[in-house]
Amino acid sequence: MLTRKINLIVIHCTASRCTSTLTPQQLERMHLANGWSGCGYHYYITRDGRIHPMRPISAVGAHAKGYNTNSIGVAYEGGLDANGKPADTRTPMQILSLRMLLQALVRTFPGTRICGHRDLSPDLNGNGIIEPSEYIKMCPCFNAAEEYKLLIREQ
Predict the structure, then answer these.
(1) For the chain, which domains are there?
(2) Active-site amino acid positions
(3) DSSP letter at 20?
(4) pLDDT digit string (tens) for 10-27?
(5) Which parts of the chain have pLDDT scores under 50?
């Protein structure tokens, strides 16, 4: 039984180049090297579209400082083009798997908000909108809140 209230799903990229591979095991080792108890994300989607459970949903994540207590972290492999610049590098299989995973999570946790990690940046000018110039990170390199807003309406 889940004892924490989930009201947010945060989408991340791993900020790895689309020309390299980052296995779930490598991702886990990277996060352990940061001093975390394991991978900070709850789910990881590799380029082939496989969804890898990484951290139990019952455990608080380590993926979005200040938002971990009530959120689920989902990351996809990639986010940088071949030159190391931020880009939406999701493969068709990743796009499909991410949508299927989010649909299942939204059904399990009704009323959940979906956003990208970048959408949790501070609103520096106080206008109520997190604008690109205010992003601390580009992650996940696409507008997750906009792309998945229909999933929330389908609840």
Answers:
(1) 8-153 (3.40.80.10)
(2) 12, 41, 117, 137, 139
(3) S
(4) 999 999 999 999 999 999
(5) none
